[in-house]
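Protein modeling request. Please complete all fields; requests missing the sequence field cannot be processed.
Requester role: graduate student
Desired output: 3D structure, token encoding
Chains: 1
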Amino acid sequence: MLMYYAILIIGVLLVIVALFTFIAMYSGKDYTILNVGKILLALLLGVLCLVITLPSLKYVVLKEYDVVSGKCVIEIDSSGRTSEADLKMLNIDEVFSFRDIPALDAYGKSIPYYCEVTVTKDHEFGVSYKIYDAKTRKLILTSK
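Delivered output (144 residues):
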């Protein structure tokens, strides 16, 4: 959920900064192509961030969540500076990403597990997860 709030705050800040900068530029009559381009880029990025996050805002604020359960495979993505865990739900073809990586070294990451993932009602953002053994349904790990 930290990523959700970060994207939402960045979107709001970019839109506000772009609007205030445009108003200041308009009142100062300082129209350069570079300044207009920067403002439009900031405005477009801010609106994009808001388009991604605002549809789920109602579910996050009211804490209306769904629990998606079924067999899953865990993939660790460490392509950048940070790593994240992708829980691929095999029965519904959805992928949920989490910043905290489950410590499943004794079990292995590529084998199927039974997972319960708590997500927003629109299935856009993951909130938490529980990982169970696929055969015994014994709880192995929960998210922080």
